[in-house]
Amino acid sequence: MFISISPEELLAAAMARLDGAITNIVDVFMDYADDGGKKRQLNKEELKKLFAQEIECPELKDKISADDIEEAMEMLDKNHDGEVNFREFCRCVCVLATGYYHKKIGKAGKKGKGKQEGDEQDG
Fold it and tell me: pTM of whole model > 0.90?
């Protein structure tokens, strides 16, 4: 038995997954940045805990390791205030997503500027 799915239903299902991804990113940040009344930012310990508890995929864990939190903080903390705000955290998520995408399309670790098949829609 085959089920026919319209393009509109497929788009709705994809958006539902994207909705979940977006709300999860916000919720994870807020869960770890909630430090009892202080501004909503991640300090080094909160970021370390977030990475340790929320990233399990080896491809992603290799990009930012909890053991290398100093380097991760320096990379993420663009305004150099010793904490990571939501915008800086989103940059981190983008870097992780891009690395995972490249791994999935077989482009991981390659720094060349040549295009590979499937790059037309990279954006």
Answer: no
